[in-house]
Amino acid sequence: MDEKKSTSFPEGWEPHDQEYFSDVFWIHINPWSCALTFGLRQASATERDKPMLRVRMPLQQAKLLAVMLLQQMRRYEQETEVDIDLPRNLLESMGIPLEDWERFKGI
C-alpha cells in the first residue's frame, strides 16, 4: 500500500520529510496534557537511553491516538495474518498485567 494514498493531509499541508527511528519511549501525563518522548536505546548498559523527539498533545488527542493506533494494529494483524505479541517477562517488567494485554489484544 502506498503510504501517500493511505494518509490524508488537510488542504495546503504537505507531509514533513523528516523521519525518526525509536526503540525506546517515555509517556508523561499531567492533568492538562500528554508528552510522548521517543528515543534510542544505547548499546552499553552503562549509558543512558538518548531522547530524540518529544510530542506534546492534549489528553483527549492522546486518547484518540491510542484508539486509532489500536485500530491500525488490529487491521494490520488481520490483513497480514501476523500476531504481534510480547513476551510475558517483558509485560511483567513493564508492570502490565497479562489480563490487560489480553483485553488490549481482544482475546
Strand order of the largest sheet: 1-2-3
Give the count of helical stretches: 4
Straight-line N-to-C gap: 28 Å
Q: Count all strands and give the number.
A: 3
How confident is the prediction overall: mean pLDDT? 86
What's the main sheet like? 3 strands, antiparallel
Principal-axis shape equals globular
If you had to describe this structure to a student in words, what would you say it looks like?
The structure is a single chain. The chain is an alpha+beta fold. Residues 1-6 have low confidence and may be disordered. Helices cover 37% and strands 21% of the residues. It has a three-stranded antiparallel sheet. The protein contains four helices and three strands, in the order H-E-E-E-H-H-H. It has helices at residues 3-6, 59-80, 88-93, 98-105, and strands spanning 24-29, 33-40, 50-58. It has one domain. Strand 1 and strand 2 (33-40) form a beta hairpin.
Describe the secondary-structure layout.
Elements: H1 3-6, E1 24-29, E2 33-40, E3 50-58, H2 59-80, H3 88-93, H4 98-105
Antiparallel strand pairs: 1-2, 2-3
Short structural summary:
The protein is of the alpha+beta class. It has one domain (19-105).
